[in-house]
Amino acid sequence: MEPKKEPLTESYFYILLCLYRHANHGYGIMQEAGELSGGRVRIGSGTMYGAVSNMMKKGWIAECDAEPEYGTAGGSRNTGVRKKLYVLTDTGRQALETELVRLIEMLKSAEKIIGRPPELLLKK
């Protein structure tokens, strides 16, 4: 029997989406999620790292090697500091794509009732 697939939280959805095309570090994911959502979704650091930990346990994302970052941070020289980069695994890609199918099915159901594509509701 296949395990029940639970809907993703919005934070999980955006974290996986941000890793779909490329590896990224936590802060980069938080910034990109905000950009993708037009500022509607703000993933805080506590949520981010809790979600990352859980998704790593599920095998949805993994850490990958990062180049050391050089430059100044807070006025002092920051040499050789490695940011943790995360990458989407095949299992994580499948989880995201399953969620996308679920969301599309929901929108199609709404369109049957509303009588027009739900995205037209955005143009009020």
- Major pleated sheet: 3 strands, antiparallel
Helix content: 40-55%
| Continuous helix count | 4
Mean pLDDT: 86
- Low-confidence stretches at least 5 residues in length (pLDDT < 50)? none
Strand order of the largest sheet: 1-5-2
SS elements, strand count: 5
Characterise this structure.
This protein has 124 residues and is α+β, with helices and mostly antiparallel strands. Helix content is 48%, strand content 17%. The protein contains four helices and five strands. It has a three-stranded antiparallel β-sheet. The chain has a two-stranded antiparallel sheet with strand order 3-4. β3 and β4 form a beta hairpin. The longest helix has 25 residues. The protein is elongated and about 55 Å long. It starts with 9 loop residues before the first helix and ends in a 10-residue tail after the last helix. The mean pLDDT is 86.
Summarize the structure.
It is built from 4 helices and 5 strands. With 124 residues, the chain is an alpha+beta fold.
Relevant terms:
elongated; 5 strands; single chain; alpha+beta
List the helices and strands and how they pair.
Layout: H1 10-18, E1 24-25, H2 26-36, H3 45-58, E2 61-64, E3 69-73, E4 76-81, E5 85-88, H4 90-114
Antiparallel strand pairs: 1-5, 2-5, 3-4
Helix pairs in contact: 1-2
